[in-house]
Amino acid sequence: MKSALNNQDTRSNNQIITNNQISITKERKARQFAMNHIGSWLSNWLLNIGICLVIVSWLLVIGKANAQLSEIGVNPFRAEVGSRPLGMGAAFVGLGDDVNTLLYNPAGLAWVKGISVTLKDFENVTGIQAYPTGYNAAFGLGIVNTKYSQLPLYLTTGEASSTSSLVLISYGTKLTFIPALAKQDFFRKLGLGFSLKGLYGETLSRTGLLDRSATGWDLDLGMLYKGADWWTIGASFQNILPAKALGGGEIKWDVGPPEGIPASFKVGGSAKLIGDIGTPIFLEGRELILAGELDLASASPILFRVGGEWSQNKTYFLRTGVMQQSKPGGTVLSLNFGAGYRFDIWGFDFVVYREPLRDEYQYFFSVLYFPKEWIVVKKLEVERPLLVLEKALEKISLEDNAVVYDDKIEVSGKVKPGVEIYVNGLRAYTAEDQSFKVVVPLEMGKNLILVEAHYLGEKKSWKYKVLRKAKVIVAEEKIIKKELQKAVTPEVREELKKKEEEIAKRRAKVEELVTLGVIEVTPEAEFKLEASITRGELATWLVKASGLPLPKVDRDVALDIKRDHPLAPFVKAAIDWEFLKLFPDGTFRPNVPVTKEEGEKLFKLLKVGQK
Q1: Half-sphere exposure of 389 (CA within 13 A, CB side)
Q2: pTM value?
Q3: Residue 90 · residue 291 · CB < 8 Å
Q4: Is residue 423 located within the same domain as residue 355?
Q5: What was the pLDDT predicted at 562?
Q6: Shortest CA distance to 293 belongs to which of 92, 24, 570, 159?
Q7: What are the pLDDT digits (tens) for 541-570?
Q8: Is the model's pLDDT at 170 over the cut of 90?
Q9: C-alpha distances in angstroms, 227 versus 268, 278, 464?
C-alpha cells in the first residue's frame, strides 16, 4: 500500500514537473514570438524612418535655384491656390478633404470629388477637377494660370513680369484594390497619390532685355493617413525629379541653358477638435478644424503655416491662418482671412491673401461644384452583387425628430450581408438574418443617435434626432376620463371629449416647459392646470425660459425679498428685464397668485402660448 502511494506521488510529481516544463516552454515561445514581433516591427519602423530621411535629404540637395526667376521670386511649379486653403494659411497638406487637395497633396484624391474655379482676375484663373473612379481613387486635372507684373529686380534695376500656365494630371488612391490589403485597417486609412506637372507656357519680361519663354515638367508624390475621424497627417514631395531625368526636372528656356526646379518636402497634420461625429469635443452642428505644416525647400528657409476653420451646420464657414512665404532676400509672415458658404451641391469661398512679391493684399474668389452622381466609394463583394453604402442599411426602427417619453429607446433594423453596424460608437450584434437590436439610453431633452454602417474599410453615417419629453400627469385629465366612463348621453360624451382634447393640448405645452427645465414637476406627481401660480414661481420660470444669467444680488430686491432670499436672483432678473414689476408700496409679494395677463408672458416668451 505504501509502495503504491509512493508510486502515485512520484507520478504526480513527474506530471507537475512535466506541466511546469510545458508551461515554461510555452512562456518562452510566447516571449520569443513577442520579442521577434517587436523586433521586426521596430526594425521596419526604423527602416522606414531612415528611408524618409534619405529621401528628404536627397530632395533638399537636388534642383538648382532657377536663376532667371529667382531674382523676382517666381516659381511657376508652386501652385498654392484656392480660397479655402489660403484662408487657412495654406496649411493643407495634412488636411486634403476637398478638391483643392489636388494642388497641395494628391493623396487626398482618394476621398474627394468635385470641380473648383478660383480667380483673382481674368489673368489669374485656376480650374481643377477631381473625378472619382468609384473604387477609393480619383483622377485629377488642373490648370493654373498666373501672372505677376511690375515685380522689382533685386540684382539689377528695373521691373519684370511673369506669365505662366501650369497643367496638372493627378491620381490618388488607396491600396485596398489589392485583395491582400483590403481588410487591413492601416491601408484602409492610407492614401497615396502623384501629380504630373507640365509648364506649357512661361513668359518672362524684364526691363531692357528680350522676352524669354520656357517649358518643363516635374513630378509630385503625396501621402495622407486618416488615423481617425478627427485627425489626419500628410506629406508631399514636390518637384522630385532630378535635372534631365526622363526629360524633366528642369525649366527649358528658348535661349540659354536650362535651369533646375527647386524641390520641396511638406509635412503637416490636421485635427477636427469640435464636431458631432467622432471628435474629442461634441457640439451638434458646429465644427472646428485646426491644421499646420512645415515646408522644407532646397531654395528657401524652412517655412511654417497654421490655420483654422470654424463652421456652423456645414453651411457657413470662417477661416484664418498664419502663412510664412519666401521672397528674394528672406521670408514674410502674413495673416489671411477667409469665409465660405455651402448649399446642396454648390459652394462659394472668399479669401483676403497677402502676396509677398509685391507685398500687397489680394482677393480670391472660388466657386465649387460637387456632383451627386459622382460616386466616391463603390465596393464589389466577392461573388455578390454590387453594394453601395447608401443601401447598406435595409431598414431601421428610428425616425428623425422622434418624440418619446421613456428614458431609453430600442433601435432595431437589418443590414446587407457583410456590413457591421455601430450605434453611438458601439458595435451592435448582428444575427444570422442580418438583423440587429440595441437599447440606447436617453437624456431629458434633445438626443442625437448616430448609426454607422462599416463595410470593407468604408462607412456611411445616419443621424437621428430624438426628443425625450417629460411625462406630466394632469389631474383634470384623469377627472375627464372618469366622467367619460359615466357619461350616458351622446351630447354629454361629445362635450367631455372636447374638454379632453383641450386639456391634452394644454398638457403638451406644460410637458414642453418641463422638458426645457423651466417648470419643475416631481415625477408621478399630479399637475393641476387650473391651480394658481405664484409671482415667485412665475419669476423663476420666466428667467429660466429666457436663458438669462442670474445677476449678483448685493442688496435687497424688494421690501419682502431680502438679498439672501432663495428667489432674490430670479426676482431681480425678472424686474431688471421688465418681465414683472414691483407693487407701488415696494413689495414683490412672491406668494400672491399671478393675474391672467402676467401668466401669459411665460407662454408668449416660449412661443407656446394659447391663441
Answers
A1: 22
A2: 0.61
A3: no
A4: no
A5: 92
A6: 92
A7: 778 777 778 888 999 999 999 989 989 999
A8: yes
A9: 13, 12, 26
**Pairing outcome for strands 402-404 and 458-468:** parallel
Domain boundary among 306, 339, 369: 369
State how far the Cα of 494 lies from the Cα of 490, in Å rounded to an integer. Answer: 6
Strands 137-152 and 300-312: unpaired
Q: For a pLDDT cut of 90, what percent of the chain falls above it? A: 35
3-state secondary structure of 424: coil
Grid coordinates belonging to 588:
414683490
* CB count in 10 Å sphere of residue 41: 10
**DSSP single-letter state for residue 145:** E
Number of structural domains the chain divides into = 4
State how far the alpha carbon of 176 is from the alpha carbons of 76, 226, 416, 460, in Å.
35, 14, 20, 17
pLDDT tens track for 456-492: 767 888 899 998 887 776 777 777 777 777 777 888 7
Domain boundary among 17, 35, 61: 61
With respect to residue 365, please indicate whether it lies within any of the assigned structural domains.
yes
Whether residue 107 is found in the same domain as residue 32 = no
What range defines the domain where residue 415 resides?
Answer: 379-468
The CATH number given to whatever domain includes residue 434 is: 2.60.40.10
Residue 477 lies in a domain: no
Beta bridge partners of 163: 147, 203
**pLDDT band for position 7 (50/70/90)?**
very low
DSSP character at residue 175: G
* Number of C-beta neighbours around residue 339 at 10 A: 17
- What whole-number distance in Å separates Cα of residue 507 and Cα of residue 501? 10
Same domain, 162 and 298: yes
Q: Which residue has the cell 483643392?
A: 100
Task: Find, among 412, 364, 316, 371, the residue nearest to 131 by Cα.
Answer: 371
Question: Once rounded to an integer, what is the mean pLDDT over residues 296-309?
Answer: 87
Comparing 124-133, 154-163, 218-227, 363-372, the range with the smallest average pLDDT is 154-163
pLDDT, tens digit, for every residue of 171-206? 999 988 887 887 788 888 999 999 999 998 889 988
Q: Are residues 24 and 172 in the same domain?
A: no
- Reported in sequence order, the residue ranges of 458-557 that DSSP labels E, i.e. its strands, are 458-468, 473-474, 526-527
Q: What is the full DSSP assignment across 98-141? A: STTHHHH-GGGGGT--EEEEEEEETTEEEEEEEEE-SBSEEEEE
Identity of the amino acid at 350 = F
pLDDT of residue 427: 86
Q: Are 100 and 219 in contact (CB under 8 A)?
A: no
What average pLDDT is seen over the chain?
Answer: 80
Asked if residue 191 and residue 168 are part of one domain, the reply reads: yes
Q: Does 522 fall in a domain?
A: no
140 is a domain residue: yes
- Are residues 127 and 209 located together in one domain of the fold? yes
Query: pLDDT tens digits, residue range 44-62?
Result: 444 454 444 444 444 444 4
